[in-house]
Write a structure and sequence with these properties.
binds zinc ion, elongated, four-stranded antiparallel β-sheet, 10 strands, 19% strand, 9 helices, 269 residues
Length: 269
């Protein structure tokens, strides 16, 4: 997300907005103010909080909020560059450049909100502390806050802002911690390792993204089922959930144990 923010910061503020929309009905989450209210205004740039991108207008009147979820992609097209025929959302700038949001798959999860500055402020308030640079001390407080599995805590934007499913897999592998470990059971040494892993993995991801690396090269554990662990060569394992899949190394992370989908085993009992 930070790589996106850096890429978009200058171009989106270069020209005023000529045409806001159309947006897919499932993508646009707000109706008032209408998208057309953006027309004629210019963005001041892009700000990021967690996985949300905020585009405040220069006049301070409106904020466009974009949440890409898992499959959404934002692309800035220079004048004359061809883009997708039916993006989930399109913004046209004076001079012909465009900002388009596309989303692979039939399910539309990514969202666009047009907010007043007060509404945008309220959106930010229920986010947890920013993941990058959180530090061991703050992370210990977050972990002590409620007892839950590490993977679930890392993905929860109210606990820590900015980590999705893929990076939760990468970070836990780097920290050599089980995705199922309970947050309250972590030793201070483990919390320190986790804080270090959050920073080094997010920095690694940002650097690769800025070089234009695709998912396959960026991730080392996520979606690497049966491929050799980059540390110990053990085949990467997975646990499936309805909405996501956890990838992990049984040797590096779980002491050789295979993680079970507990919900499924509950059904079978
Ligand atoms: Zn391993």
């Amino acid at each position: 997300m930070e790589a996106w923010r850096r890429q978009l910061d200058d171009p989106v503020s270069a020209f005023p907005i000529a045409k806001a929309g159309p947006a897919h009905i499932a993508t646009l989450k707000t109706y008032d103010p209408p998208l057309a209210a953006l027309e004629g205004r210019r963005f001041a740039g892009v700000e990021r909080r967690g996985k949300r991108l905020f585009f405040p207008t220069e006049d301070g009147g409106l904020v466009l909020l974009v949440h890409l979820m898992t499959a959404g992609r934002l692309k800035y097209l220079r004048a004359g560059e061809t883009g997708p025929k039916t993006p989930a959302f399109r913004l046209g700038f004076e001079g012909g450049a465009q900002l388009v949001l596309t989303e692979a798959g039939a399910k539309k999860r990514a969202g666009v909100w047009l907010l007043t500055p007060e509404q945008a402020e309220a959106e930010v308030e229920h986010l947890g502390p920013e993941a990058y640079g959180i530090g061991a001390e703050r992370l210990r407080e977050v972990c002590a806050g409620e007892s839950r599995r590490l993977h679930s805590m890392l993905r929860d934007q109210r606990a820590i802002a900015g980590i999705g499913r893929a990076w939760a897999n990468e970070i836990l592998h780097h920290a050599q911690l089980s995705p199922y470990a309970l947050t309250k059971d972590l030793t201070p040494e483990q919390v320190g390792r986790l804080a270090e892993a959050i920073d080094s993995e997010l920095a690694r991801g940002l650097e690769l993204r800025e070089q234009g690396a695709k998912d396959d090269r960026t991730y080392r554990v996520h979606r690497k089922l049966a491929e050799p662990c980059y540390v110990c060569d053990t085949p990467i394992a997975q646990v499936d959930f309805e909405e996501h899949t956890i990838y992990y190394c049984p040797t590096c992370q779980t002491g050789g144990r295979t993680l079970k989908d507990r919900r499924l085993s509950r059904l079978l009992r």
